[in-house]
Amino acid sequence: MRRGGTVRFAARGHDSGPAGLFINVVDKVVEVHLFARIPLTGWNQKPYNFQEKQGSRYETFLGKVKLKKTRGLEMLNESKKNRSEVPAVETAIKILEYLSRYKHRLSTLSEISRDLSINKSTCYRILKVLNEYRFVSYDEDSKHYSLGSYLIVLGARAAEFIDYLKTARPHLKWLAEQTGQTSVLVEPISGNRLMYVAKEEPNRPVRVTVSIGQYFPITSASFGKCFLAFLDEKEAEEIIRKVGIKQFTNRTITNIEQFMEHLKQIRAKGYAESYEEHTPGICGVSAPIFDLYGNVNMVIACIGLAAQMNPEVMPFYAEKVKEAARRITDAFSGKEPYAPAGQDALIREALS
């Protein structure tokens, strides 16, 4: 519909007879005038701003209109709050996230459109623009799209500008040297997910390799347990029930009550362990990094083969990871929480 444009048509809205509809759009305001033989008092008008003009047989509604073939006209109140303000930008971000995953690193237009539920022509136009700016690359022979070279430049610049990663990296390297295992920094992102933001791999022929930018649910592995263990107990349980616990292996803890009890143990020890719970043959140990207010800002961890990180030697790795976490917390001027989850509010109340 054009700005300032007008649309007129006829429709049968009720058994009372034919109805006419007049729509006028001016400066992003949609005026909908519905003409009927009688006032439409039978419709539920409570959520809407109906105005009846004196001496005439029509009512005016400011909002949006939607036609239904079976029931005539249905008035909608406001646009959905969660609807994206800039859908094209959101779609472009989804495409880049999609291509960043290893199994989708080389994908065709049809695959991207289908997997992300994007209209094919819309998807093509967005990919064309991303290709022009080198955010994606397109291979004419294979018809595959992949991440573009300019993202390397942006990633390098971002790493330069993000001071906290620069501050944490020496401690990450120290942990890899001390343990001989791959060390990682994990940070929360939107949608209750975690993501690798930095890594240091040991100089040894057999080691675990991870991809920066790879993300996973907050309820998975030792990383997520560290974040959840230091939240308020009710908040943690709410997140767990909302996100769910996906069973990656036969060792994944999927029972919520058992998972919550495990979080209490993690908070008491100050670190979390994972024995092949996320990936078969891989174990890990994580410790929280706190901010100024005692909240978990990031998690540092070391991950390795199950044969190398068995329960007998895990305490050694745990102490090294906790030491690295303490050093980074100090560098961030952070502090550890002074009370178990769920008791902070009670202590503040007692001291006030």
From TrEMBL:
Gene Ontology MF terms: DNA binding; DNA-binding transcription factor activity
Domain HTH iclR-type: 86-149
Domain IclR-ED residue range list: 150-334
UniProt-listed GO biological process terms: negative regulation of DNA-templated transcription
UniProt KW keywords: DNA-binding, Transcription, Transcription regulation
InterPro entries assigned: ArsR-like_HTH (IPR011991), GAF-like_dom_sf (IPR029016), HTH_MetabolicPath_Reg (IPR050707), Tscrpt_reg_IclR_C (IPR014757), Tscrpt_reg_IclR_N (IPR005471), WH-like_DNA-bd_sf (IPR036388), WH_DNA-bd_sf (IPR036390)
One Pfam match: IclR_C
Name used for this protein in its record: IclR family transcriptional regulator
Organism: Desulfofundulus salinus
